[in-house]
Amino acid sequence: DALLCASSCPDELTIRRPCLVSASWGGLGKEVKKGGGHAGGGGVIMRGSHCWKHWSKTQQNITLSSAESELVALVKGSCEGIGMCSLMEDLNGRNRGVVEMYTDAAAAIGITQREGVGRTRHIDVWMLWIQQRQKTGALGIHKVDTKWNPADVLTKHVPSEVMDRHLGIAG
What we know:
The protein has five helices and five strands. The protein has helices at 11-15, 66-92, 106-112, 129-136, 160-170, and strands at residues 19-24, 37-47, 50-63, 99-103, 139-143. Helix 2 crosses helix 3 (106-112).
């Protein structure tokens, strides 16, 4: 039940059946200006070598920073991951437990590991439920190297070698 990817792919991605997310704050051209704008976000839900779900959408929130757009992507991915786990529990009667989230954005991980908005004044309060889920252990949030995050191809332009590697990871 392991990912079929390069032998140097991190073991944590082959064991945990992750949900990987990414965002691109500056990648939508004229829409993103000094005062903020809509960013793009995407994600991939995996089980072993199979891609169960993927998405790539323009975020509805107007984000003022790349950290905020990555947080929006992390919240969206968490919702999708929780929904997928609920579906699987309904189908087979077994609770999978913790939803394992992976992102390459250290700032978004930092926001989820504290209480409240901290010094980031422009974060929507509705996104802070992710802090509680992470604190109670119902949601695992981890850092993944951009090199191993297939969600990147859903949010930004990448060279063909990177595209091939990510497609190999995502199956």
